[in-house]
Amino acid sequence: MPLTAADNEHREAVDAQDYLWTLNFGPQHPATHTTLRLVLKLDGERVVDAIPDIGYLHSGFEKIGEHLDYNQYVTVTDRMNYISPMANNVA
Hints:
Blueprint: H1 5-16, E1 21-25, E2 37-43, E3 46-53, H2 61-65, H3 70-78, H4 85-90
Antiparallel strand pairs: 1-2, 2-3
């Protein structure tokens, strides 16, 4: 079966991308603070493509807080942001 020009172009595009790496970055990585996941395509150390997944931002804290008073909920707000938990307690 002979190859057409379109098949050759597609094959060249696939061959050109054989060296790309796919890397899952986050949500457990310390730089993402458990709120973001990136699917990165890398060419060596250069980022060729990045697909964000921001679905990790909402953790259901608001729904938990609907049934707790302030003294019970303050322990939950400590865990929302481990860098500045006091700001969450006041807010």
